[in-house]
C-alpha cells in the first residue's frame, strides 16, 4: 500500500504558485520523498526528491517538515502545461528502490 | 537527461496471441528496471522488478507465467504478455533507475497501450 496521503484534486490559476501537500506520517529515517507527475496518456515524469532538507530545481521546490511527516511541492508559476496528476511517493529504499504509487493529486491549472 | 524508450507505443491484437513490449535505457545502463500497469482512471500498479541477468521479482497477485520478463542486457528489458485476453488490455509502463544508489530517481518510458480484441 502507498504510504502517502494526498488530496484527490486541486485547482490553480495560471501564473500563480501551486502548492501540493502530501502526508507521509509513517516515513522512516532512510526513506526519501519523491514527486512525479503524469500528464494524460504519458509515462510519469520525475520532478524532485529529498530526504530531509528542502530542495529546489528548475521545475519545482520541495519543502519537507522538520519531523518529515509531511511535505509540499511548489510549482512557483504554474502554466496550463502543468495540468497533470502529481504523485508523492515514499521510496522503499530497502527494497531496491521500488516506487508504490498512490492515487495522487489531479492538478488543474486554469487560465 | 536520462531517457527510457518503450516500443511499441500501442498495439492491438487478437485474443490468444502473445505480445512483447520492449523497454530500453538509451543513454545509461540499468541493472534494474520496473514494470507497471495502469487501468483507466487508476494509478500505476507495480507488476515486477526486472533484474539484469537474473529472474524477475513479481509483486503479489501478478502471474509470472502470464507476464514473462526478460532482462538480458543492461539496456533492455522485455515484458511478454502470453495468451493475452481482453482483460489484459491496459497501459504498460516501464522505468529504470539510473544507478548510483537506490535513492536516485527512476525515469519512465512513455508507455505501451495494449488493446486485446
Main sheet summary of chain B = 7 strands, mixed
The order of strands across the largest sheet of chain A is: 1-9-8-3-4
Averaged pLDDT of chain B, please? 91
Q: How many alpha or pi helices of chain B?
A: 0
Name the overall outline of chain B. Answer: globular
Q: Span from first to last CA of chain B?
A: 37 Å
Structure description:
The complex is a heterodimer of chains A (111) and B (117). In chain A, a hairpin with a 4-residue loop joins strand 5 (55-56) and strand 6 (61-64). Chain A is globular. Chain A has strands spanning 9-13, 18-23, 33-38, 45-50, 55-56, 61-64, 70-75, 84-90, 105-110. Chain A is mainly beta and 111 residues long. Chain A has no helices and nine strands. With 117 residues, chain B is mostly beta strands. In chain B, the strands form two sheets. In chain B, strands 2, 4, 5, 6, 9, 10 and 11 form a seven-stranded mixed β-sheet that branches. In chain B, strands 1-3-8-7 form a four-stranded antiparallel β-sheet, with no helix packed on it. Chain B starts with a strand and ends with a strand. Chains A and B meet through strand 3 and strand 4 of A and strand 4, strand 5, strand 9 and strand 10 of B.
Topology:
The complex is a heterodimer of chains A (about 110) and B (about 120).
Chain A: E1 9-13, E2 18-23, E3 33-38, E4 45-50, E5 55-56, E6 61-64, E7 70-75, E8 84-90, E9 105-110
Parallel strand pairs in A: 1-9
Antiparallel strand pairs in A: 2-7, 3-4, 3-8, 5-6, 6-7, 8-9
Chain B: E1 4-7, E2 10-13, E3 19-25, E4 32-38, E5 45-51, E6 57-58, E7 67-73, E8 76-81, E9 90-97, E10 106-108, E11 112-116
Parallel strand pairs in B: 2-11
Antiparallel strand pairs in B: 1-3, 3-8, 4-5, 4-9, 5-6, 7-8, 9-10, 9-11
Short précis:
The complex is a heterodimer of chains A (111) and B (117). With 111 residues, chain A is mostly beta strands.
